[in-house]
Amino acid sequence: MTDAPIRPEARAPRGFADRRGRDLIAERRLVTRVSAVYERWGFEPLDTGAFEYADALGKFLPDADRPNEGVFALQDDPDDEGNGEWMALRYDLTAPLARFAAQNWETLPKPFRRYAFGPVWRNEKPGPGRFREFVQCDADTVGSDRPEADAEIIAMACEGLQAAGLAPDLAVVRVSNRKLFDGLFETGGVEDAGQKLTALRAIDKYDRLGWEGVAALLGEGRLDESGDYTKGAQLPSKVIGAIEGFLASANSPDLSRAETLDAVARSGNIGAVGEAALAELAAIDAALNAMKVDQSAVRFDPTIVRGLEYYTGAVFEAELLLETTDDKGRAVRFGSIGGGGRYDDLVARFTGERLPATGFSFGVSRLASALRAAGRGAADAVRGPVVVIAFSEADMQHYLDAVAELRNAGVAAELYLGRAGMKAQMKYADRRGAPAAVILGGDEIAAGQVTVKDLDAGRALAAGIADNEAWKAERPGQVVVPRTDLVATVRRIVDAPRTDA
Q1: Where in the chain are all domains bearing CATH 3.40.50.800?
Q2: Domain 21-378, what fold?
Q3: Which of 140, 439, 462, 483 has the largest count of CB atoms under 10 Å?
Q4: Element housing 457 (H / E)
């Protein structure tokens, strides 16, 4: 008796999404639109490799002894001395920029303004709209400590959000400064770096956990709904109380940016370091006002800290205000769809000399997922190709000529290369989202004609969108035209306004 072959289960790893057609096109379109904004603001493109040496990436994700904690790492082949260095897939596009700037600073224009896009990888727990592999699109200025550099990045992020298809009332960029908490820790006598980092990570969850959950993480720790226990920062109770008062001081969406700064200043407990942070935010506010950035588009919010350790000053977070649902109709809160801030110490890890830098990153995959959940992906979808139906092997030359003629005219087209009949081919064309099907049967070929079926019109009529008699007269579902009119007929269908967009 022969043992049955062992067959692997066809499955994708958690947090690694298969994307095809419409979803992939939506992501690419977002990258194109946001990149166009970056270029218009004077940023040049840069592409770095997917892998960096682990020590060059730095330990800015959760600290642990293993090199692959928070990242996906492997050990390079041994060198002549038998040592193999650890490499890791980049977890963002900023750490590779810091390495590039340190390596090439002497030859770069200063300040150096670059944008980049591409996949990044994080070895962390996936969730709704949160993947282990996802696409980011960043813009950064390296070499400027001016608050106007931060303000420019923020204003550009607002323009990028609108270019991505979000009206001004559907997203907001929230801004704060990490030094506000440095001041709180200093006045509270908290000096341990590990405690500070754990506390900041706890505060970063304020919008999701509320004060009760954050307070637990600032203290002894928290047991979540899944049964996982997270150790807390173990801050003194007086410091936890000061943080609560600080977060509550400006927790009002009705305050202007200047009014928020006044409220934070009145809360006390922020010390000289915190006062300096308020001055930096006031300078950013002045620049934003000069650039005519609306108060509703950019707000100051002291709860924003950002999770990565390398931020040193101003921090930004773009929040989606669009209502979204999952495939079961349940409300889903996507929250942050991008963020960034000032990281003046990142390049210094390589050079020993402080080099100011600031930047913003769009979570392209996350934003595309959110737009899809809100039912906004269809307007950005690109139709499939025109499909040329195949009937007979003997007439293959006619089909190949037709599809080549359409392609040469700039129309996306394909010849059906399966072995199914007419009905199945039409179903195939519909599933491909084809705007039209080209039919060259024996009768058409003999008569020097071609039948063109308007599939866009058929979809609109089936959906009850086009019930206007004049429209139906202009868009008949199927026409027979001279073979020489193939391209012109198909072009009219492809170029016509879409009723499903």
Answers
A1: 385-495
A2: BirA Bifunctional Protein; domain 2 (3.30.930)
A3: 140
A4: helix 455-462
